[in-house]
Amino acid sequence: MGAIHVTVAIRNPAEPDRVWEGLFLVDTGATDCLAPRQFLESIGLAPKAQRVYELADGSKIRMDITVAQVEFMGELVGATVIFGDTDAEPLLGVTALESVGIEIDPRNQTLKRLPAVRLK
Questions:
Q1: Which helix H or strand E contains 108, and what residues bound it?
Q2: Are 91 and 23 contacting, i.e. CB atoms less than 8 angstroms apart?
Q3: Among residues 41, 21, 12, which one has the least CA distance to residue 90?
Q4: What pLDDT digit, counting tens, does each position of 20-72 carry?
Q5: Does some domain include residue 25?
Q6: How far apart are CA 13 and CA 69, in angstroms?
Q7: 100-to-52, 77, 82 alpha-carbon distances in Å
Q8: Domains contained in the chain, number
Q9: Is the per-residue pLDDT at 1 higher than 70?
Q10: Residue 112, domain member (yes or no)
Q11: Are 34 and 82 in contact (CB under 8 A)?
Q12: Domain assignment present for 85
């Protein structure tokens, strides 16, 4: 399957006018979203906690996280966002996708909106 990218806006929930927009890789292997630290800090977001994540190679890493408003495809969701390295590719994780009822169509390599958000 090819890579799917989508434009995402990250907003500071305390100051919604402070926003950073970027092209994010849709990553169904990632639970949470990730953005380079400098962009999160530029809109006034600061780490609120740390969480241990398992990387693709099986190693574990402790990373700073915060909660932000994540907006994409006309949808808005509160989501955990990881403070990535300066050169990290922004990632849109599966939790944000599922929260607004969007899934990947692997045949067409596109995102598709479900008729309703799953509550079951």
A1: none
A2: no
A3: 21
A4: 999 999 998 899 999 999 999 999 999 999 999 998 899 999 999 999 999 99
A5: yes
A6: 6
A7: 25, 7, 19
A8: 1
A9: no
A10: no
A11: yes
A12: no
